[in-house]
Amino acid sequence: SDDTERTAPRLTVIGTGYLGATHAICMAVLGFDVLGVDVDPDKIERLNSGEVPFFEPGLPELLAKALDSGRLRFTTSFAEAGEFGDVHFVCVGTPQLPGSFGADLRYVDSAVGELAQHLRRRTLVVGKSTVPVGTAARLTEIVRSTAPAGADVELAWNPEFLREGYAVDDTLRPDRLVFGVASEWAEERLRAAFAPVIAQGTPVVVTDLPTSELVKAAANSFLATKISYINAMAEICEATGADVTALAQALAYDDRIGGRFLKPGLGFGGGCLPKDIRAFSHRAEELGVGQAVSFLREVDAINQRRRARTVDLVRELAGGELAGARVTALGAAFKPNSDDIRDAPALDVARTLHQAGAEVTVIDPAAVDNARRAYPDLQYGTDVLAAATGADVVVLLTEWAEFREIDPHALGAVVARRRIVDGRHALDPAQWRAAGWDYRALGRP
Ligand code: NAD
Description:
The protein is α/β, with parallel strands linked by helices. Helices cover 46% and strands 13% of the residues. Substrate binds at residues 161-164, 216, 261-265, 269, 335.
Protein backbone atom coordinates (compact mmCIF):
# COMPACT_ATOMS: atom_id res chain seq x y z
CA SER A 1 0.00 0.00 0.00
CA ASP A 2 1.01 3.69 -0.26
CA ASP A 3 1.28 3.76 3.48
CA THR A 4 3.79 0.88 3.50
CA GLU A 5 5.84 2.52 0.79
CA ARG A 6 5.93 5.84 2.60
CA THR A 7 7.07 4.24 5.83
CA ALA A 8 9.49 1.75 4.24
CA PRO A 9 12.84 2.28 5.95
CA ARG A 10 16.04 2.68 3.96
CA LEU A 11 18.35 -0.20 4.79
CA THR A 12 22.10 -0.66 5.02
CA VAL A 13 23.81 -4.02 5.26
CA ILE A 14 27.25 -3.89 6.90
CA GLY A 15 29.43 -6.81 5.82
CA THR A 16 28.67 -8.23 2.36
CA GLY A 17 29.89 -11.84 2.63
CA TYR A 18 27.72 -14.95 2.22
CA LEU A 19 25.10 -13.60 4.61
CA GLY A 20 25.27 -9.84 4.00
CA ALA A 21 25.40 -9.85 0.19
CA THR A 22 22.45 -12.24 0.11
CA HIS A 23 20.48 -10.13 2.57
CA ALA A 24 21.23 -6.86 0.75
CA ILE A 25 20.30 -8.26 -2.66
CA CYS A 26 17.09 -9.94 -1.46
CA MET A 27 15.91 -6.87 0.47
CA ALA A 28 16.39 -4.75 -2.68
CA VAL A 29 14.47 -7.32 -4.71
CA LEU A 30 11.68 -7.08 -2.12
CA GLY A 31 11.48 -3.34 -2.92
CA PHE A 32 13.64 -1.62 -0.29
CA ASP A 33 16.35 0.93 -1.02
CA VAL A 34 19.52 -0.80 0.17
CA LEU A 35 23.15 0.23 0.62
CA GLY A 36 25.69 -2.58 1.17
CA VAL A 37 28.88 -1.73 3.08
CA ASP A 38 32.13 -3.67 3.39
CA VAL A 39 35.74 -2.90 4.33
CA ASP A 40 36.93 -5.00 1.36
CA PRO A 41 37.09 -2.62 -1.65
CA ASP A 42 37.54 -5.50 -4.11
CA LYS A 43 34.32 -7.14 -2.91
CA ILE A 44 32.47 -3.81 -3.20
CA GLU A 45 33.74 -3.21 -6.73
CA ARG A 46 32.72 -6.70 -7.85
CA LEU A 47 29.25 -6.39 -6.34
CA ASN A 48 28.73 -2.94 -7.91
CA SER A 49 29.70 -4.37 -11.29
CA GLY A 50 27.15 -7.18 -10.94
CA GLU A 51 29.42 -10.03 -9.83
CA VAL A 52 28.58 -12.13 -6.77
CA PRO A 53 32.02 -12.87 -5.22
CA PHE A 54 31.00 -16.39 -4.13
CA PHE A 55 28.94 -19.33 -5.42
CA GLU A 56 25.26 -19.16 -4.49
CA PRO A 57 22.57 -20.53 -6.83
CA GLY A 58 20.12 -17.87 -8.05
CA LEU A 59 21.95 -14.94 -6.48
CA PRO A 60 23.74 -13.54 -9.59
CA GLU A 61 20.39 -13.18 -11.40
CA LEU A 62 18.87 -11.33 -8.44
CA LEU A 63 21.93 -9.05 -8.12
CA ALA A 64 21.53 -8.03 -11.77
CA LYS A 65 17.83 -7.38 -11.21
CA ALA A 66 18.44 -5.35 -8.03
CA LEU A 67 21.20 -3.22 -9.62
CA ASP A 68 18.98 -2.57 -12.66
CA SER A 69 16.14 -1.41 -10.42
CA GLY A 70 18.41 1.30 -8.97
CA ARG A 71 17.49 0.21 -5.45
CA LEU A 72 20.85 -1.36 -4.57
CA ARG A 73 24.40 0.05 -4.31
CA PHE A 74 27.54 -0.94 -2.48
CA THR A 75 30.14 1.28 -0.79
CA THR A 76 33.12 1.20 1.57
CA SER A 77 32.01 4.45 3.21
CA PHE A 78 30.52 4.30 6.69
CA ALA A 79 29.75 8.03 6.45
CA GLU A 80 27.53 7.30 3.46
CA ALA A 81 25.92 4.43 5.36
CA GLY A 82 25.16 6.62 8.38
CA GLU A 83 23.65 9.29 6.16
CA PHE A 84 21.57 6.81 4.13
CA GLY A 85 20.14 4.24 6.50
CA ASP A 86 17.14 4.17 8.83
CA VAL A 87 17.76 0.53 9.75
CA HIS A 88 21.31 -0.91 9.65
CA PHE A 89 21.86 -4.67 9.48
CA VAL A 90 25.21 -5.89 10.83
CA CYS A 91 26.32 -9.02 8.94
CA VAL A 92 30.10 -9.14 9.52
CA GLY A 93 31.97 -12.34 10.36
CA THR A 94 32.30 -13.83 13.84
CA PRO A 95 34.94 -16.56 13.36
CA GLN A 96 36.49 -18.74 16.04
CA LEU A 97 39.34 -17.03 17.89
CA PRO A 98 42.70 -18.67 17.18
CA GLY A 99 43.71 -20.86 20.11
CA SER A 100 40.32 -20.61 21.82
CA PHE A 101 36.74 -21.85 21.47
CA GLY A 102 35.45 -18.29 21.86
CA ALA A 103 34.08 -16.10 19.05
CA ASP A 104 36.22 -13.31 17.62
CA LEU A 105 34.03 -10.24 18.02
CA ARG A 106 36.49 -7.65 16.74
CA TYR A 107 34.69 -7.26 13.39
CA VAL A 108 31.30 -6.77 15.02
CA ASP A 109 32.74 -4.28 17.50
CA SER A 110 34.56 -2.26 14.86
CA ALA A 111 31.64 -2.28 12.38
CA VAL A 112 29.19 -1.06 15.04
CA GLY A 113 31.67 1.44 16.50
CA GLU A 114 32.53 2.85 13.07
CA LEU A 115 28.88 3.11 12.05
CA ALA A 116 27.82 4.74 15.32
CA GLN A 117 30.14 7.72 14.74
CA HIS A 118 28.17 8.57 11.60
CA LEU A 119 24.63 8.29 12.96
CA ARG A 120 22.81 11.62 13.17
CA ARG A 121 19.13 10.74 13.65
CA ARG A 122 16.88 8.18 15.28
CA THR A 123 18.21 4.85 13.98
CA LEU A 124 17.93 1.13 14.58
CA VAL A 125 21.08 -1.01 14.40
CA VAL A 126 20.16 -4.68 13.93
CA GLY A 127 22.68 -7.45 14.50
CA LYS A 128 22.31 -10.48 12.23
CA SER A 129 25.74 -12.03 12.85
CA THR A 130 25.86 -15.07 15.14
CA VAL A 131 27.19 -13.85 18.49
CA PRO A 132 27.58 -15.07 22.07
CA VAL A 133 24.66 -14.19 24.34
CA GLY A 134 25.30 -10.79 25.95
CA THR A 135 26.89 -9.22 22.86
CA ALA A 136 23.88 -7.02 22.06
CA ALA A 137 23.91 -5.57 25.57
CA ARG A 138 27.64 -4.84 25.26
CA LEU A 139 27.19 -3.26 21.81
CA THR A 140 24.39 -1.07 23.20
CA GLU A 141 27.00 0.45 25.51
CA ILE A 142 29.48 0.91 22.64
CA VAL A 143 26.82 2.70 20.59
CA ARG A 144 25.78 4.94 23.52
CA SER A 145 29.35 6.04 24.11
CA THR A 146 30.24 6.46 20.41
CA ALA A 147 27.20 7.98 18.66
CA PRO A 148 27.12 11.79 18.56
CA ALA A 149 24.82 13.58 21.01
CA GLY A 150 21.32 13.86 19.53
CA ALA A 151 21.56 10.61 17.60
CA ASP A 152 18.99 8.35 19.19
CA VAL A 153 20.35 4.88 18.41
CA GLU A 154 18.83 1.61 19.53
CA LEU A 155 20.11 -1.93 19.11
CA ALA A 156 18.11 -5.01 18.13
CA TRP A 157 19.01 -8.58 17.17
CA ASN A 158 17.63 -10.56 14.25
CA PRO A 159 19.53 -13.86 14.08
CA GLU A 160 19.90 -15.37 10.62
CA PHE A 161 19.12 -18.98 9.75
CA LEU A 162 19.85 -19.08 6.01
CA ARG A 163 21.62 -22.11 4.55
CA GLU A 164 24.32 -21.69 1.91
CA GLY A 165 23.06 -23.30 -1.29
CA TYR A 166 19.48 -22.28 -0.42
CA ALA A 167 20.29 -18.75 0.75
CA VAL A 168 17.96 -16.89 -1.63
CA ASP A 169 14.92 -18.98 -0.80
CA ASP A 170 15.71 -18.96 2.92
CA THR A 171 15.94 -15.15 2.85
CA LEU A 172 12.82 -14.51 0.77
CA ARG A 173 10.77 -17.24 2.48
CA PRO A 174 12.26 -17.94 5.92
CA ASP A 175 10.74 -20.52 8.30
CA ARG A 176 10.47 -17.78 10.93
CA LEU A 177 11.75 -14.35 11.89
CA VAL A 178 13.17 -13.72 15.35
CA PHE A 179 13.22 -10.13 16.63
CA GLY A 180 15.20 -9.42 19.78
CA VAL A 181 14.13 -5.94 20.84
CA ALA A 182 14.31 -3.59 23.79
CA SER A 183 11.34 -1.38 22.83
CA GLU A 184 8.08 -1.30 20.87
CA TRP A 185 9.66 1.22 18.52
CA ALA A 186 12.39 -1.28 17.61
CA GLU A 187 9.76 -3.96 16.98
CA GLU A 188 7.75 -1.58 14.77
CA ARG A 189 10.90 -0.69 12.76
CA LEU A 190 11.80 -4.36 12.29
CA ARG A 191 8.25 -5.19 11.22
CA ALA A 192 8.51 -2.38 8.64
CA ALA A 193 11.89 -3.68 7.43
CA PHE A 194 10.41 -7.17 6.92
CA ALA A 195 6.88 -6.14 5.88
CA PRO A 196 6.86 -8.07 2.57
CA VAL A 197 8.16 -11.23 4.27
CA ILE A 198 5.70 -10.96 7.16
CA ALA A 199 2.86 -10.37 4.67
CA GLN A 200 3.45 -13.91 3.30
CA GLY A 201 2.48 -15.29 6.70
CA THR A 202 6.00 -15.88 8.04
CA PRO A 203 5.80 -16.45 11.82
CA VAL A 204 7.51 -13.75 13.92
CA VAL A 205 8.87 -14.43 17.40
CA VAL A 206 9.36 -11.16 19.28
CA THR A 207 11.54 -11.46 22.35
CA ASP A 208 14.28 -9.79 24.36
CA LEU A 209 17.89 -9.36 23.21
CA PRO A 210 19.53 -12.28 25.06
CA THR A 211 16.83 -14.75 24.03
CA SER A 212 17.22 -13.78 20.37
CA GLU A 213 20.97 -14.33 20.57
CA LEU A 214 20.43 -17.71 22.23
CA VAL A 215 17.91 -18.91 19.62
CA LYS A 216 20.66 -19.10 17.01
CA ALA A 217 23.13 -20.89 19.31
CA ALA A 218 20.39 -23.31 20.41
CA ALA A 219 19.26 -24.02 16.84
CA ASN A 220 22.75 -24.77 15.53
CA SER A 221 23.58 -26.86 18.60
CA PHE A 222 20.46 -28.96 18.02
CA LEU A 223 21.31 -29.51 14.36
CA ALA A 224 24.92 -30.42 15.11
CA THR A 225 23.74 -32.79 17.85
CA LYS A 226 21.34 -34.53 15.47
CA ILE A 227 24.14 -35.15 12.96
CA SER A 228 26.56 -36.36 15.61
CA TYR A 229 23.85 -38.54 17.16
CA ILE A 230 23.42 -40.58 13.99
CA ASN A 231 27.18 -40.61 13.48
CA ALA A 232 27.61 -41.99 17.00
CA MET A 233 25.18 -44.74 15.94
CA ALA A 234 27.42 -45.28 12.89
CA GLU A 235 30.36 -45.95 15.22
CA ILE A 236 28.29 -48.58 17.02
CA CYS A 237 27.24 -50.06 13.68
CA GLU A 238 30.88 -50.34 12.64
CA ALA A 239 31.61 -52.37 15.77
CA THR A 240 28.69 -54.75 15.17
CA GLY A 241 28.30 -55.14 11.41
CA ALA A 242 24.99 -53.24 11.48
CA ASP A 243 23.96 -50.76 8.77
CA VAL A 244 23.51 -47.14 9.87
CA THR A 245 21.67 -46.12 6.69
CA ALA A 246 18.88 -48.64 7.37
CA LEU A 247 18.92 -47.61 11.04
CA ALA A 248 18.53 -43.93 10.11
CA GLN A 249 15.77 -44.72 7.64
CA ALA A 250 13.85 -46.65 10.30
CA LEU A 251 14.27 -43.86 12.87
CA ALA A 252 13.16 -41.22 10.37
CA TYR A 253 9.67 -42.73 10.02
CA ASP A 254 9.03 -41.63 13.60
CA ASP A 255 7.64 -38.09 13.21
CA ARG A 256 9.04 -37.14 16.60
CA ILE A 257 12.55 -37.86 15.28
CA GLY A 258 12.26 -37.00 11.59
CA GLY A 259 14.74 -37.74 8.82
CA ARG A 260 16.13 -34.26 8.14
CA PHE A 261 19.68 -33.77 9.39
CA LEU A 262 19.69 -37.43 10.44
CA LYS A 263 22.12 -38.30 7.64
CA PRO A 264 25.12 -40.36 8.70
CA GLY A 265 28.45 -39.70 7.01
CA LEU A 266 31.53 -37.53 7.19
CA GLY A 267 29.77 -35.00 9.41
CA PHE A 268 29.34 -31.26 9.55
CA GLY A 269 31.72 -28.40 8.79
CA GLY A 270 31.56 -24.93 7.31
CA GLY A 271 31.73 -21.42 8.66
CA CYS A 272 28.87 -21.90 11.14
CA LEU A 273 28.09 -25.17 12.96
CA PRO A 274 31.59 -26.03 14.26
CA LYS A 275 32.49 -22.54 15.47
CA ASP A 276 28.98 -21.87 16.75
CA ILE A 277 28.83 -24.91 19.04
CA ARG A 278 32.33 -24.12 20.31
CA ALA A 279 31.49 -20.46 20.96
CA PHE A 280 28.31 -21.57 22.75
CA SER A 281 30.11 -23.93 25.13
CA HIS A 282 32.81 -21.28 25.69
CA ARG A 283 30.18 -18.66 26.54
CA ALA A 284 28.27 -21.06 28.79
CA GLU A 285 31.51 -21.73 30.69
CA GLU A 286 32.09 -17.99 31.10
CA LEU A 287 28.58 -17.73 32.53
CA GLY A 288 29.26 -20.58 34.97
CA VAL A 289 26.79 -22.95 33.27
CA GLY A 290 29.23 -24.87 31.09
CA GLN A 291 27.86 -28.17 32.37
CA ALA A 292 24.50 -27.49 30.73
CA VAL A 293 26.06 -27.82 27.30
CA SER A 294 29.10 -29.99 28.03
CA PHE A 295 27.58 -32.54 25.61
CA LEU A 296 28.53 -30.16 22.79
CA ARG A 297 32.18 -31.11 23.36
CA GLU A 298 31.17 -34.70 22.67
CA VAL A 299 29.15 -33.64 19.61
CA ASP A 300 32.30 -31.95 18.30
CA ALA A 301 34.50 -34.96 19.11
CA ILE A 302 32.16 -37.43 17.38
CA ASN A 303 32.19 -35.16 14.35
CA GLN A 304 36.00 -35.01 14.25
CA ARG A 305 36.28 -38.80 14.61
CA ARG A 306 34.28 -39.27 11.36
CA ARG A 307 37.06 -37.47 9.50
CA ALA A 308 39.71 -39.72 11.04
CA ARG A 309 37.62 -42.82 10.29
CA THR A 310 37.28 -41.80 6.64
CA VAL A 311 41.06 -41.51 6.38
CA ASP A 312 41.32 -44.99 7.95
CA LEU A 313 38.94 -46.47 5.36
CA VAL A 314 41.00 -44.99 2.53
CA ARG A 315 44.14 -46.43 4.12
CA GLU A 316 42.53 -49.86 4.40
CA LEU A 317 41.48 -49.79 0.74
CA ALA A 318 44.98 -48.64 -0.25
CA GLY A 319 46.30 -51.88 1.29
CA GLY A 320 47.28 -50.46 4.68
CA GLU A 321 49.74 -47.85 3.44
CA LEU A 322 48.94 -44.32 2.27
CA ALA A 323 52.46 -43.33 1.22
CA GLY A 324 52.56 -43.30 -2.56
CA ALA A 325 48.86 -44.20 -2.97
CA ARG A 326 47.08 -42.23 -5.70
CA VAL A 327 43.82 -40.91 -4.26
CA THR A 328 41.08 -39.00 -6.07
CA ALA A 329 39.09 -36.90 -3.60
CA LEU A 330 35.62 -35.98 -4.84
CA GLY A 331 34.72 -32.71 -3.12
CA ALA A 332 36.33 -29.76 -1.38
CA ALA A 333 33.38 -27.58 -0.34
CA PHE A 334 31.91 -28.23 3.12
CA LYS A 335 28.66 -29.15 1.40
CA PRO A 336 27.22 -29.30 -2.13
CA ASN A 337 26.02 -26.13 -3.90
CA SER A 338 28.57 -23.98 -2.09
CA ASP A 339 32.15 -22.85 -2.68
CA ASP A 340 32.67 -22.40 1.05
CA ILE A 341 35.67 -24.34 2.36
CA ARG A 342 35.71 -23.01 5.93
CA ASP A 343 36.33 -26.03 8.20
CA ALA A 344 35.38 -28.30 5.30
CA PRO A 345 35.49 -32.00 6.28
CA ALA A 346 36.40 -32.84 2.67
CA LEU A 347 39.53 -30.72 2.62
CA ASP A 348 40.46 -31.83 6.11
CA VAL A 349 40.43 -35.46 4.93
CA ALA A 350 42.27 -34.62 1.68
CA ARG A 351 44.96 -32.75 3.58
CA THR A 352 45.42 -35.56 6.11
CA LEU A 353 45.78 -38.10 3.28
CA HIS A 354 48.35 -35.83 1.62
CA GLN A 355 50.28 -35.44 4.88
CA ALA A 356 50.36 -39.24 5.20
CA GLY A 357 52.12 -39.41 1.82
CA ALA A 358 49.24 -40.05 -0.57
CA GLU A 359 49.17 -38.31 -3.95
CA VAL A 360 45.83 -36.54 -3.69
CA THR A 361 43.90 -34.86 -6.50
CA VAL A 362 40.84 -32.90 -5.35
CA ILE A 363 37.84 -32.37 -7.65
CA ASP A 364 35.09 -29.87 -6.92
CA PRO A 365 32.56 -28.14 -9.20
CA ALA A 366 32.77 -24.77 -7.37
CA ALA A 367 35.35 -24.69 -4.58
CA VAL A 368 38.66 -25.44 -6.33
CA ASP A 369 39.83 -21.80 -6.42
CA ASN A 370 39.13 -21.29 -2.71
CA ALA A 371 40.68 -24.66 -1.85
CA ARG A 372 43.83 -23.98 -3.85
CA ARG A 373 44.34 -20.65 -2.08
CA ALA A 374 44.00 -22.34 1.32
CA TYR A 375 45.96 -25.53 0.52
CA PRO A 376 48.28 -24.93 -2.44
CA ASP A 377 50.12 -28.21 -1.81
CA LEU A 378 47.23 -30.40 -3.00
CA GLN A 379 46.56 -31.09 -6.68
CA TYR A 380 43.27 -29.94 -8.16
CA GLY A 381 41.10 -30.70 -11.15
CA THR A 382 37.60 -30.17 -12.42
CA ASP A 383 37.14 -33.25 -14.60
CA VAL A 384 36.44 -36.43 -12.65
CA LEU A 385 37.56 -38.96 -15.30
CA ALA A 386 40.77 -37.08 -16.09
CA ALA A 387 41.66 -36.73 -12.42
CA ALA A 388 40.80 -40.32 -11.52
CA THR A 389 42.91 -41.85 -14.29
CA GLY A 390 45.32 -44.27 -12.60
CA ALA A 391 43.81 -43.78 -9.11
CA ASP A 392 44.28 -46.46 -6.46
CA VAL A 393 41.36 -45.22 -4.32
CA VAL A 394 38.49 -42.81 -4.98
CA VAL A 395 36.90 -41.12 -1.95
CA LEU A 396 33.62 -39.19 -2.14
CA LEU A 397 33.69 -36.35 0.40
CA THR A 398 31.05 -33.81 -0.72
CA GLU A 399 27.74 -35.07 -2.13
CA TRP A 400 27.48 -32.86 -5.23
CA ALA A 401 24.80 -34.07 -7.69
CA GLU A 402 27.47 -34.62 -10.38
CA PHE A 403 29.28 -37.06 -8.10
CA ARG A 404 26.08 -38.98 -7.31
CA GLU A 405 25.56 -39.40 -11.06
CA ILE A 406 29.00 -40.79 -11.85
CA ASP A 407 28.78 -43.97 -13.93
CA PRO A 408 30.71 -46.69 -12.04
CA HIS A 409 31.60 -48.41 -15.34
CA ALA A 410 33.05 -45.24 -16.90
CA LEU A 411 35.03 -44.45 -13.76
CA GLY A 412 36.06 -48.09 -13.43
CA ALA A 413 37.56 -47.96 -16.92
CA VAL A 414 40.10 -45.24 -16.01
CA VAL A 415 41.17 -46.04 -12.43
CA ALA A 416 44.05 -48.37 -11.59
CA ARG A 417 41.96 -50.15 -8.94
CA ARG A 418 38.19 -50.14 -8.41
CA ARG A 419 38.13 -49.09 -4.79
CA ILE A 420 35.84 -46.38 -3.46
CA VAL A 421 35.04 -44.89 -0.06
CA ASP A 422 31.63 -43.21 -0.03
CA GLY A 423 31.97 -40.66 2.79
CA ARG A 424 28.44 -39.31 2.27
CA HIS A 425 26.29 -42.37 1.50
CA ALA A 426 25.70 -40.72 -1.85
CA LEU A 427 26.13 -43.80 -4.06
CA ASP A 428 24.18 -47.03 -4.48
CA PRO A 429 26.44 -49.80 -3.10
CA ALA A 430 24.71 -52.54 -5.13
CA GLN A 431 25.27 -50.69 -8.39
CA TRP A 432 28.95 -50.01 -7.63
CA ARG A 433 29.66 -53.54 -6.43
CA ALA A 434 27.95 -54.93 -9.54
CA ALA A 435 30.39 -52.83 -11.60
CA GLY A 436 33.29 -54.53 -9.86
CA TRP A 437 34.07 -51.94 -7.20
CA ASP A 438 35.25 -52.59 -3.65
CA TYR A 439 32.73 -50.17 -2.06
CA ARG A 440 33.17 -49.01 1.55
CA ALA A 441 31.09 -46.54 3.55
CA LEU A 442 31.03 -45.25 7.12
CA GLY A 443 28.76 -47.26 9.41
CA ARG A 444 27.95 -49.88 6.80
CA PRO A 445 29.12 -53.43 6.35
P1 NAD B 1 31.84 -13.79 5.47
O1 NAD B 1 33.22 -13.94 5.96
O2 NAD B 1 31.44 -14.37 4.16
O3 NAD B 1 31.45 -12.24 5.41
C1 NAD B 1 31.83 -11.31 6.38
C2 NAD B 1 32.05 -9.97 5.66
O4 NAD B 1 32.24 -8.93 6.63
C3 NAD B 1 33.30 -9.95 4.77
O5 NAD B 1 32.94 -9.53 3.46
C4 NAD B 1 34.22 -8.93 5.45
O6 NAD B 1 35.02 -8.20 4.54
C5 NAD B 1 33.21 -8.03 6.13
N1 NAD B 1 33.73 -7.23 7.23
C6 NAD B 1 34.63 -7.57 8.20
N2 NAD B 1 34.82 -6.54 9.04
C7 NAD B 1 34.02 -5.54 8.63
C8 NAD B 1 33.75 -4.24 9.11
N3 NAD B 1 34.35 -3.77 10.21
N4 NAD B 1 32.89 -3.46 8.44
C9 NAD B 1 32.26 -3.93 7.32
N5 NAD B 1 32.46 -5.16 6.82
C10 NAD B 1 33.33 -5.96 7.47
O7 NAD B 1 30.91 -14.39 6.63
P2 NAD B 1 29.39 -14.90 6.53
O8 NAD B 1 29.36 -16.35 6.22
O9 NAD B 1 28.60 -13.97 5.70
O10 NAD B 1 28.95 -14.78 8.05
C11 NAD B 1 28.68 -13.54 8.66
C12 NAD B 1 27.94 -13.78 9.97
O11 NAD B 1 26.70 -14.40 9.68
C13 NAD B 1 28.66 -14.72 10.94
O12 NAD B 1 28.39 -14.30 12.24
C14 NAD B 1 27.99 -16.04 10.68
O13 NAD B 1 28.07 -16.91 11.78
C15 NAD B 1 26.57 -15.59 10.42
N6 NAD B 1 25.77 -16.52 9.62
C16 NAD B 1 26.29 -17.03 8.46
C17 NAD B 1 25.52 -17.91 7.71
C18 NAD B 1 26.07 -18.55 6.46
O14 NAD B 1 25.45 -19.50 5.97
N7 NAD B 1 27.18 -18.10 5.91
C19 NAD B 1 24.22 -18.25 8.14
C20 NAD B 1 23.72 -17.67 9.29
C21 NAD B 1 24.51 -16.83 10.03
